[in-house]
Amino acid sequence: MLNNQIPTFYSLMNPLLKALFQLGGSGSVDEICEKVLEIEKIEEEIASILHSPEKSNQTEVAYRLAWARTYLKKYGFLENSSRGIWALTSLAKKKKKVDPQDVLKKVKEDYEAGSRQKNRKQKYDQIELNDSDAPEIEEWREEIHHILTRGISPDAFERLTQRLLRESGFIQVEVTGRTGDGGIDGKGIARIHGFMSFHVIFQCKRYQGSVSAGDIRDFRGAMVGRADKGLFITTGTFTPAAVKEATRDGAPPIDLVDGEQLTEKLKEFQLGVRTEIVEKVVVDKNWFSNL
After folding, report:
1. Edge-to-edge strand list for the sheet holding 170-175
2. What's the CA gap between 230 and 199, in Å, rounded?
3. E strand residue ranges, 3-52
4. Cα(75)–Cα(252) distance, integer angstroms
5. Where in the chain is the domain with CATH 1.10.10?
6. What is the C-alpha to C-alpha distance for residues 103 and 68, in angstroms, rounded to an integer?
7. Three-state secondary structure call for residue 150
8. CB–CB of 205/236 below 8 Å?
9. In terms of CB atoms within 10 Å, which of 103, 105, 139, 261 comes out highest?
10. 187/233 Cα distance (integer angstroms)
């Protein structure tokens, strides 16, 4: 089975560290994943396997890398910001590598010590299922993924893309999708600070798998001579080869938006997603005692 060919999360720890060193000491989740795939020479067929197709577009490799990041952070080798950027700590820069078994042992000891302090009886081997630090997909993302891939029609998804582009500053956005048009679903004009503009052709693809380099080439072939740039939006992911093809030197550039970026944009523009802040009232007893 192909799943057996996917590296374990602990075997990805050192490639992850190596990737961050090559990226200059910090990087986004996508940058790290792409670099690890390159370092480990993981084949596209393996890299495209999804962790849970029914719930999200996250690949199994990305899921295991998330666990590797979690363990390395607990081990003191990684830190991350609120903006989702991961960076090497001074300890990592000094040591450069880890013994995965030492990491597992240290995290296990710390976890069990914390469990005793909290009078919890949970076993260490259940961490991956129940640990609060588990890199699981948030429920709202799962719900959006399900709605976009199964809960709305293809036409509705095209209208959603049109609305999203308008909210992002595009003008004259039209949905023109029709069979035999190379996968082109619409066009629009991207305005940059009110001074510059680019004619953009877009394709929006409801997909639970990975968009291939062939899909990108077909799309580019259809857009040549008709627009300055291309935009490919999918509910799925893009294979490493597709990402390279989209930015190939000498070819018209194509910007890529995967399922994770799509859900973030829907949240940002509050399109079907809203953030609710729960009010918490706290009584300051000290304030009353000082009256």
Report:
1. 170-175, 186-192, 196-205, 229-234, 254-257
2. 9
3. 26-28
4. 44
5. 2-130
6. 10
7. helix
8. yes
9. 103
10. 13
State the average pLDDT for the chain. 86
What is the predicted pLDDT for the residue at 120? 54
Total Cβ atoms within 10 A of residue 286: 7
Tell me if residue 67 falls in helix, strand or coil: helix
Are 158 and 233 in contact by the 8 Å Cβ rule? The answer is: no
Instruction: Report the range of poorest mean pLDDT among 84-88, 193-197, 234-238.
Output: 193-197
Q: Flag the least confident range among 89-98, 130-139, 235-244, 268-277.
A: 130-139
CB-based contact 270:278 (threshold 8 Å): no
Q: Rounded to an integer, what distance in angstroms lies between the CA atom of residue 165 and that of residue 28? A: 24
Q: 133 falls in which pLDDT band (50, 70, 90)? A: very low
Q: What is the CATH number of domain 2-130?
A: 1.10.10
- Three-state SS string across 170-196, please? EEEEEECCCCCCCCCCEEEEEEECCCE
CATH level 2 (architecture), domain 142-268? 3-Layer(aba) Sandwich (3.40)
User: How much is the pLDDT for 20?
Assistant: 96
CB 177 within 8 A of CB 202: no
What is the CA angle 112-114-117, rounded to 5? 110
Range scoring the smallest mean pLDDT among 161-165, 205-209, 235-239, 244-248: 205-209
What percent of the chain lies above the pLDDT cut of 90?
A: 49
pLDDT given at position 142: 86
DSSP 135: -
> Which residues belong to CATH 3.40.1350.10 in the chain?
142-268
